[in-house]
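Handout for the seminar on molecular recognition.
Each group receives one record of this type.
Step one: identify the two inputs.
Step two: read the structure output and locate the region that could contact S-adenosylmethionine.
Step three: write two sentences on what you found, then compare them with the reference statements printed after the record.
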Amino acid sequence: MSSDADHVPVLVEETLRYLLPERPFRGAGLFVDATLGLGGHAEALLEAAPAARLLGIDRDPDALAQSRDRLARFGERVRFAEGSFSEVADLLERSGWAGGGGLQIVGIYADLGVSSLQLDTAGRGFSFRFDAPLDMRMGRRGPTAAEIVNSYPEADLARIFREYGEERQARRIARALVAAREERPVETTGALRRVILDAKGGGGRREGRVDPATRVFQALRIEVNRELAELERFLEEAIRLLDTDGRLVVISYHSLEDRIVKNTLRNLARGEIDQVTGRPRAESRVIEVLTKKPVTPGPDEVARNPRSRSAKLRAARRRALDS
Ligand SMILES: C[S@@+](CC[C@H](N)C(=O)[O-])C[C@H]1O[C@@H](n2cnc3c(N)ncnc32)[C@H](O)[C@@H]1O
């Protein structure tokens, strides 16, 4: 089991500061929490914006069940949607609050990655702290990590470990995995970790602060959950859905995600390049970036909640299209 500290939402004050232009927030619009998880950010937001509504999305039905309990006291102000945040437009439509629902969308936010519930539940297969079936799916759809390690060609495994895990020994580990699965399928977190450790040598010595298996596990998790493609699609949709002056806040936990957030926001803030002049067209600047640099947790938060260590928050404001 995890401790209470694991369930503390990351950068919660900073998230509210960017989502709510004034405090207390009197607006009656709609917020979308794209990664509801255990509902920590959502709870703080619903308290700080007493007239607002919130649609909470998560692809993990277990997370939704827990946050339903936690947020029950807000009654009709909250609705829940199971699905991927890349489908935020559809999920909003189905919630009955979009378009015809008449509510302005004043804020959309995502706190990316896995929840402590997922990491600390042995059977979900996210962590090599427990020997468990190699699943790693945040939701219930799509191939598991076991299906991927036992079926992908060696070259694809190597690419995934290199690109998504920034693993220097990606090819060597991919080769070892293919050899191991010819003997017997690699079905558990423990079996995968052993293959990685044997391929790397070093007897499982930590690499700096991290376990030698960490990078490959991160890479597989990103592949299983299509995390980067999900994020790209989500950002596009979220910006499109926001009403004028609506806010977007994204908290990411590794450099691949942060790069996507940073570049997407920068491009949308700069505007489209005019083919004739070669300069950005001012009228196509869809957002203003509110965070020149990413916001990171202070030492107190990191000490209280080590999971916040790598968090980076970026925020933007939707412009009026003709401003
Ligand atoms: C870091 S946790 C969120 C924690 C939450 N902010 C809180 O205060 O409890 C991330 C959550 O996002 C969900 N998630 C990640 N990627 C998703 C996606 N593409 N679509 C929907 N949910 C996703 C995960 O299932 C997980 O529950």
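Reference statements: The beta strands are 30-33, 53-58, 78-82, 105-111, 247-252, 287-289, 312-318. The pocket of S-adenosylmethionine is lined by residues 9, 35, 37-41, 57-60, 63, 84-85, 111, 113-115, 138, 230 (CB under 6 Å).
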